[in-house]
Write a structure and sequence with these properties.
Elements (H helix, E strand, L loop, with lengths): L1 H21 L4 E5 L10 H16 L3 E5 L7 H10 L4 E4 L3 H4 L15 H8 L2 H14 L1 E16 L14 E4 L3 H9 L3 E4 L5 H7 L4 E5 H6 L8 E17 H5 L3 H35 L3 E3 L3 H23 L4 H14 L1
């Protein structure tokens, strides 16, 4: 039954892709894994405004598939590469197909969201997009935002890396995150997202790390007493389009899509910023203690975590390790 279900789903996606092709390539399927509600979902908001602009300014039609309707992020990337889904909005899945994108996860790289926007919307972001296009066949139309990730725990307030010692933190099953938490003195424990609430409730782990909006919207603040707004990783969204599909469009259609994507990326960023600000207020109102580290304390976190992660990435990336230096240079220039 499970095999039949997967087969039927794959067949449905293929048939939709065939229909779009035979219709003169005028229909774009836009897919992501977030809810469709634009007021609380950065990808949902980005997708909806993308649809409105494209349909309002061209003869193209946009069909939205939110909430993982066509699969998880890895599956969406694969579908876009196969030409079955034209546009996808993904975050962590990008580094799996374009290793250079993983440099964006180096902890404490961006001191603020506006700094990240300047870097990603500038020469570095353009160069990374071009590199990933060559690697994947997917064009990065724009960068959105998933937000800064922060630590929570149920034991004590975290002000310095020393406060993390002895605490078990749930992390994504990504080596970079394991290296980061170990370097900070914590004990990283890879656990699937679906198992996280139970792991926190039963004490399998003491804490976890996620953007504020994710913490609040999924009720994790009800299972944790403390949150530290250290913003250790800035997570970017990638708004991707199949290059084969894109090149098959008329120049005027391409221009509309580029415009819509730029607005969509900024819309996603705005919604994420709203969710973060609102989320901090709401978790405090509901009893969670929130601590904002000083500049000196954040420097101590960076000094502990960055070298270990950078060393790990240099070993993993090989020739692509140059992207570490290019990112650091771009951040330094944007910070001046």
């Amino acid at each position: 039954m499970r095999f039949q279900t997967k087969t039927l789903a794959a067949t449905a996606v293929f048939c939709m892709g065939l229909a779009a092709t035979t219709a003169g390539a005028q229909t774009l399927r836009v897919a992501h894994v977030d809810p469709d509600d634009w007021t609380g979902s950065k990808k949902g908001a980005a997708a909806q405004i993308f649809k409105n602009i494209v349909e309002g300014e061209s003869d193209m039609t946009v069909e939205l598939f939110p909430a993982g309707a066509l699969g998880n992020e890895d599956e969406l990337v694969s579908q876009a590469q196969d030409g079955l889904t034209q546009v996808v909005l993904v975050s962590g899945a990008m580094s799996k197909v374009c290793a250079a994108a993983s440099v964006l996860d180096i902890p404490y790289t961006f001191a603020s969201a506006p700094l990240a926007w300047e870097v990603l919307d500038g020469e570095f972001g353009d160069a990374l997009a071009e590199h990933c296009l060559e690697q994947t066949g997917l064009r990065t139309l724009a960068y959105g935002e998933t937000g800064f990730r922060n630590f929570t725990n149920n034991d004590r307030e975290i002000r310095t890396p020393e406060d993390m010692k002895g605490l078990k933190f749930r992390v994504q099953p990504i080596p970079l995150y394991l290296e980061m938490v170990k370097a900070l003195g914590g004990e990283p424990t890879p656990i699937a997202w679906t198992e996280l609430p139970n792991a926190l409730s039963t004490g399998v782990v003491d804490g976890q790390e996620n953007p504020v909006g994710v913490i609040y919207n999924n009720g994790l603040h009800k299972l944790q007493k403390h949150m530290t707004l250290d913003g250790h990783v800035y997570a970017a969204d990638f708004l991707l389009i199949s290059e084969d599909f894109y090149q098959g469009l008329e120049p005027a259609q391409q221009e509309v899509i580029r415009k819509a994507a730029t607005v969509a990326g900024n819309m996603g960023r705005a919604i994420q910023q709203w969710n973060t600000a609102e989320g901090v207020t709401k978790v405090q109102q509901e009893g969670m203690a929130v601590y904002s580290p000083t500049a000196e304390e954040l420097a101590a976190f960076a000094e502990a975590a960055q070298p270990a992660v950078v060393d790990y990435l240099r070993g993993e990336l090989g020739d692509d390790a140059q992207w570490i230096d290019r990112l650091q240079q771009a951040v330094a220039e944007a910070s001046n």
